[in-house]
Structure formats: C-alpha cells, structure tokens
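Below is a filled-in request sheet from our internal design queue. Each sheet records the structural input a requester submitted and the sequence that came back. We keep these sheets so that new team members can see what a complete request looks like end to end.

REQUESTER: design group, bay 2
PRIORITY: normal
MODE: inverse folding
CHAIN LENGTH: 544
BACKBONE (tokenized):
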C-alpha cells in the first residue's frame, strides 16, 4: 500500500460545536476541507494502529463522498479495519452500538442531525470514542487546535469501496467490512423490551403512525415495528432515506410534524404517533389528544422504565441537561436515586453512564436514551413507550395525567430566535450575565421572587473537569425558571434559546394552556433580556 502525503493549508473554522462539526455542504465541499478535519481528528488520537473504526451516516447529501475519503484516510493512517453500514448508512444510536458491540477504537458519524440536507443544506462530522459516545471536550479542543495548523494529510490511491455490497473488501492493508446497518441494533432492542407484549398490543388493534421523515430511521422502523412487532404495513411513513430528506426539514417537532400532530388530535386518528430526526437520535411522542413534551417524556420513561425487561431491576439514576425541566428530578427523588444536571450536549452524559451512576438520560431538545448506547436514541424511546403502553394498558393521555397527579406538572416551553446577528446575540447574553449578581432576592409581579441567578458551571463528578458559561439560569422561589443560552448547533448567525418553566403541584391545575400558564415568565424574560427590542423580532422563530 502506497501512502500519499498531500500538502494542505488549514481552515480556521473547524471548531466542533455541541455535536460535531456542522457546516453548510458548500463549506464542506471546499478543497481538502473534509481531509483536513478527518486528519486533524486522527492526529488528536493515540494508539489506533491496527484497530477498528466504525463509519456511517444518515445518508444525507455528501455522505457518499465523505465516506470514501474517510475510508482512504483511515487506511493511510494505519487503522486495521473499518466497519461501514451498507449504503454508508448508520443511525447515530446504531453507530454507537456498533462501536461498543464490536469493540471498535471509535467511529466517524456523518450527520447534521435534524438540519436540512441537500446541496444547499448542512453536513456534519462527529468523532465518537470507544464507549460509543461523542468525544469529550478534551479531544474536540485538540482537534480544533490541530485543524488550525495542519499542513498535510495522508491518503491512499484506491478505487471506491462498493458500499452496496455486504461483506469484506480491502483498501490497501486495511479490511473494510460492509455490514447490515439494522441487524446489530435490532438485536439489542430485543434484549431490552418485551416484544411479545408489544406484538400483543398491535394484534389487539392498537394503531400507530411513525414518521421517519425520509431519513435514517426508515429502515430500522420497517424492520422493528412492521416486520418484527407486527404493526400493519403503512405504520411507518416517509420510510425511505433520501439525500435531501424529500426536501423536508427532518426535525421531529410540532412545526415539522404538524400534520401528524393534527391527525392525533382527531377522534378517529391513531392511538400513538412518533417521529425521529435526520440521524435517528431524537424522538417526538404524541398520544391521542396528548402531546408529550420531551421533558415530561424523560420523567415518564424514568418512572415506568422497570416495566421493560432491560430495566426490570430498577434504574441507578437519571441525568438531564440543565435547560430540561425539573420533572425528572421529582421522579428521582421518589425513587431515591441519583439525579444529575449537565450542560446541553449528550457528551456530558457519557462519564455518568460509564460509571454506572445513571441509567436514563434526556434533554428538552427531544432526546432520551439509556445506558444501552452512548447516544440519545429515537427508536429506543418509541419502543420503551410501546412497552409501557402494552403493560399498563392505558392511553398515553391517562398515563400522563396520572403522572402529573402523582408528581405535579412542570409547565414548560422553549422560545427560539434563529439566525440572529451573532454580535447582537453575544452582547445580549453578556448584558444579561452582568445583571445576575443583583437579581437574587428581587421580586417581580406578585409571586416571582428570584432565588438564584447564575451562569451554569458544570463540575463533572467523575473526572473532575469543569465546563463554564453553559447558560444563564434565573430560578424563583416557587420552582419556576428562566434559562437563556446560545445554541451550539446552528450553522448561520446565532440562535437564542429562552427556556421557561413553572411548577404546579400534584393537586394543582394541570389543564392550562402552556403559553398562558407561562405568560408572566415570558414577559419577565423579555423585560430582563430585551430580546425582541434588540433583535427587532416580533415573535420567536420556533416555539416548542
Ligand atoms: C443536539 C445535541 C443535543 C442538544 C441539541 C440542542 O441534538 O446532540 O445534546 O441538546 O443538539 O443543542 P443546542 O446547542 O442547539 O441547544
Ligand atoms: Zn439528531
């Protein structure tokens, strides 16, 4: 095998964000952009000679080009074996499982998650470590540092790998195994859930719709829901992955899944609706006449997890990202288990999961998962919901209402202001931060008294590392909260996120309209931050 060393010049913008390096395809298509980044990743790692690397992506536009480059660069850098999903496909949670199951050194996950695809859309590359989870900041910082000074990369001159063909091929001295992207993952799911109970649920006439959004979960959902669990054909819609997601926006929220939501709100609609995003790690859960917020879903899944065989022995603890509502905290308290609050980003759960301190994790951004992999997992959440529904033999709405009657309800919403001028957004957050020391003890309106106000700093209890400036929190004596932070996943300008939460006790009112219930907090957030005034926006771009 002749290794070629190709001269290159660095780019200054290859800084990984919340979840890998996400850029427009047009940025990724610049000369050597991909090569520089992959070489920078390999240059930041030690000890992979002869080891296995997993490669796969969500099938978006440019996936096929980047996979071939990645395989060649991996061969030239001395990996012994690459496992790649057939067609270059692997959902993000499946990639995590394949890394763990086959004891790989790490993996390259090609995805920009829920961002639109196509030639004018986004692309992304993320490195995951041997535990199957996203690389910690120590590594991503090193990759960025390396990318700023890189002057060459290594590759080999070989024909393309036939990605359609399952089996073994060679690139120089390196073995490439093209694997079925679904098989290992489906086998894992069978160990966690009561498939017989879910089969009986479908056999009894339970109706579901699953929207794969023309993205990666289509093949997985067809195999699991229809072929294995007996849901009627047609349960899975938009089930064929397409490079531009059928021209859609593969983000399973109430904006992009509005039709499904509306269907679930009709009397003769299905009993259960779910969706997953571009790379299969997010989930949307809607029961008949009941949308379940991601924060509530986390709390409900944690409270009911022991109904599934994989969690029958109970769960060790729960973790949630800081902006996620405190609904899960009440479940942890009742179960007498650990509760952890981490910064936004799934990578922060990795250490807690590896140490066995927590079993279930979740984020307000539609991610839930467990210790079965080291990514959030959309279909896992759907299957756990199905398992719970099959055992409890109640509707989603009944289960949610009983939960609130037991634990109280955390009214919760997020207001996003997208593509805001980055300088204005940065200044706004700085000014808000400057107000924080004066806020504790102050009262606003009749019953909002500030209990604490800070910029969240996380101390990782496992490795002792700290992550500062993770979002501004203003907490009130009644359990209400305003959180403001800048998104780490946007690709154009800045996205400001305002998270609002109010607690209503178990015997309180649980049937208020969410936006109305949170109105005083929404107004106060504007009063303190001046988002509308400073950005000239009249309303948020997205309300979830
Ligand atoms: C991705 C990450 C999540 C994160 C979400 C929103 O999905 O995997 O961990 O919560 O993006 O992040 P952002 O920084 O845009 O709020
Ligand atoms: Zn995703």
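RETURNED SEQUENCE:
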């Amino acid at each position: 095998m002749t290794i070629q060393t190709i001269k290159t010049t660095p780019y200054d913008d290859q800084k990984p964000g919340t979840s890998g390096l996400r850029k427009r395809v047009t940025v990724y298509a610049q000369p050597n952009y991909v090569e520089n980044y992959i070489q920078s990743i390999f240059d930041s790692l030690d000890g992979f000679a002869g080891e296995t690397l997993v490669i796969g992506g969500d099938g978006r536009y440019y996936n096929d080009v980047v996979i071939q480059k990645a395989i060649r660069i991996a061969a030239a850098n001395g990996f012994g074996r690459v496992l790649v999903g057939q067609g270059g496909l692997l959902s993000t949670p499946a990639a995590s499982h394949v890394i763990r199951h086959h004891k790989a050194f790490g993996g390259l996950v090609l995805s920009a998650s829920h961002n639109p695809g196509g030639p004018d859309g986004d692309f992304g590359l993320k490195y995951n470590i041997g535990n199957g989870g996203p690389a910690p900041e120590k590594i991503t910082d090193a990759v960025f540092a390396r990318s700023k000074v890189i002057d060459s990369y290594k590759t080999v001159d070989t024909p393309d790998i036939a990605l359609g063909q399952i089996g073994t091929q060679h690139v120089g001295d390196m073995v490439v195994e093209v694997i079925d992207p679904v098989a290992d993952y489906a086998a894992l799911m069978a160990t966690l859930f009561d498939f017989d109970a879910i089969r009986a649920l479908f056999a009894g006439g339970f109706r579901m719709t699953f929207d794969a959004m023309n993205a990666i979960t289509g093949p997985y959902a067809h195999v699991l829901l229809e072929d294995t669990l007996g849901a009627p054909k047609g349960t899975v819609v938009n089930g064929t992955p397409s490079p531009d997601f059928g021209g859609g926006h593969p983000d399973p929220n109430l904006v992009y899944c509005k039709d499904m939501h509306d269907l679930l709100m009709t009397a003769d609609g299905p009993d259960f609706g779910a969706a997953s995003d571009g790379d299969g790690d997010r989930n949307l859960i809607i029961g008949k006449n009941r949308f379940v917020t991601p924060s509530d879903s986390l709390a409900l899944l944690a409270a009911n997890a022991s109904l599934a065989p994989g969690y029958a022995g109970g769960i060790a603890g729960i973790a949630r990202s800081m902006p996620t509502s405190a609904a899960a905290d009440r479940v942890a308290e009742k179960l007498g288990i650990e509760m952890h609050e981490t910064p936004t980003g799934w990578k922060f759960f990795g250490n807690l999961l590896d140490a066995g301190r927590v079993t279930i994790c979740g984020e307000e951004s539609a991610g839930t998962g467990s210790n079965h992999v080291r990514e959030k997992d959309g279909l896992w959440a759907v299957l756990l919901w199905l398992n719970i529904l099959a055992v409890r033999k109640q509707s989603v709405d009944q289960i949610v209402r009983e939960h609130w009657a037991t634990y109280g309800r955390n009214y919760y919403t997020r207001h996003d202001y997208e593509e805001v001028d980055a300088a204005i957004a940065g200044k706004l957050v700085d000014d808000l931060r400057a107000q924080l020391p004066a806020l504790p003890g102050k009262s606003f309106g009749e019953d909002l008294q500030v209990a604490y106000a800070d910029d969240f700093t996380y101390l990782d209890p496992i490795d002792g590392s700290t992550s500062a400036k993770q979002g501004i929190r203003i907490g009130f004596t009644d359990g209400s909260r305003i959180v403001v932070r800048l998104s780490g996943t946007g690709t154009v300008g800045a996205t400001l996120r305002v998270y609002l939460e109010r607690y209503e006790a178990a015997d309180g009112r649980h049937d208020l309209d969410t936006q109305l219930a949170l109105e005083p907090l929404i107004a106060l957030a504007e009063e303190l931050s001046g988002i509308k005034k400073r950005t000239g926006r009249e309303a948020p771009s997205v309300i979830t």
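SHEET NOTES:
- The pocket of 6-O-phosphono-alpha-D-glucopyranose (ligand 1) is lined by residues 18-19, 113, 321, 344-346, 363, 365, 367, 487-489, 497 (CB under 6 Å).
- The mean pLDDT is 95.
FILED BY: M.R.
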